[in-house]
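Our preliminary data section would be incomplete without showing what the modeling component actually yields. Below, a chain of 171 amino acids is followed by its predicted structure, encoded as tokens that our downstream tools consume directly.
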Amino acid sequence: MPSSTATTTTDVVELILRDHRRMEELFRAMRNVQADRAGALQEFASLLVAHATAEESEVYPALRRYKNVDNEDVEHSVHEHQEGNEALLALLEVEDTGSEEWDEKLEELVTAVNHHADEEERTLINDARENVSAERRAELGEAFAKARARQLAADCGSVENVRRLVTSSSH
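Predicted structure:
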């Protein structure tokens, strides 16, 4: 792909991968005691919630319709989003970003999110790349980007919203 289109792609696969890479960058900032850990966490919280919500509302339902995309992988990803939200909430509730508790909760979040991203990239993302046409991936990417932007505009990463998500999913 030419570099000129890299910033304007609407391919859902590329958009999801780009978010995963940004999350890794934010993890590095959150691990760095010299960095603005609270600021990095706030950006991360919003990105994680917006990303997962957009995947669940726009991408996963569409992928379920492809015979070569495994439904169990989709269900598993939804479950892992819930685990990610729980780990995120635990970190958001730690007040001192310099504490040992912060470091412990951060590592739990890193483990949950990296496990999910890695698994999703090996299963759903590869399935989508192989089985979904470029045109359809572009349509899904536009829907994903719009849903993600709506979430970001609604301050989806606030501790109150994350707490609500965790509470509503643990019925």
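The helical segments are 3-6, 12-31, 37-63, 71-92, 100-131, 134-153, 159-169. The chain is about 80% helix and 0% strand. Preliminary results of this kind motivate Aim 1 of the renewal.
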